[in-house]
Amino acid sequence: MKTRIWAALLAVYIVWGSTYLAIRFAVESMPPFLMAATRFLIAGTILYAGARLSGTAKPERRHWRPTVIMGLFLLLGGNGLVAWAEQHVVSSVTALMIGATPLWIVLVDALRPGGRRPALRTMLGVLIGLAGIILLVGPSSLFGEGESIDLWGALALVAAALFWAIGSVFGREKQNELPEAPLLATSMEMLAGGAGLLVFGSLMGEWSLLDVSAITTRSLLGLAYLIVFGSLVGFAAYTWLLRVAPTPLVSTYAYVNPLVAVFLGSVFAQEPLTLRILLAAAVILSSVVLINTSRFSSPQPKAILAEARCSEGVD
Description:
It is a single chain. The chain is mainly alpha-helical. It has one domain (2-312). 75% of the residues lie in helices and 0% in strands. It contains 13 helices and no strands. It starts with a helix and ends with a helix. 50% of the residues are buried. Mean pLDDT is 88; it is low at 298-306 and 309-314.
């Protein structure tokens, strides 16, 4: 069992850490929102059919409202903006920006009506995380670097993290209204988010930008990887881990995924690995450790599954 647990955990580390690079490749020749819509509509359909064929009961009408809301926040607002931003920001920086999502969850949870006041250790983690983000996107001249991170791309990533935070807090509060089967709930969120992405991409005029003949093999492989591994294998492994492994061990994906993304971006996409990125990674991941060890002493599986979208960009 220990071997299987570590194999599944390694799969989550690598698969979810690599989705940022796959997204970058996919949007090289495909409009971002339509690409993401294709990913989640296909993956959601497969997961839904698989759950139903395995004997999972059909979701009740009351289950659709919270899953639709979560799907729109997490996938349309969160993943859609990540896909758009990766046209302008390298995957390693994207992973670090999104890796700081736990600090936005703390802020959203504290500011909402009836929200919870964070502990001192959690607030320290938030302040450290904000400092890491400023370090990451601040003026490059401070570090003797020639290029700055694209401002609009950075703002889109902050907005994506906020959408994920809102969706995650909402999902945690509504966990008793979600279907009992986690994969069924995930498939419903994917279908809702995919539909939202399709509508939004259409409203943005992306159909006129889509040139099927110009789609590269690398983009197609990136999309296929996102569907098969990011959205199917990754969540299957993660959901299984929630049932058989200690929660603190499973939650380590939040620290490892950004490091995997930085490494893969450097090796396979020749993305710059500068002193500023390395320092920001250390600062941001330190803040996530502080926040997670303070907040998630005994999280509920459905709540964890809802917040898992933060790490992967699902993922």
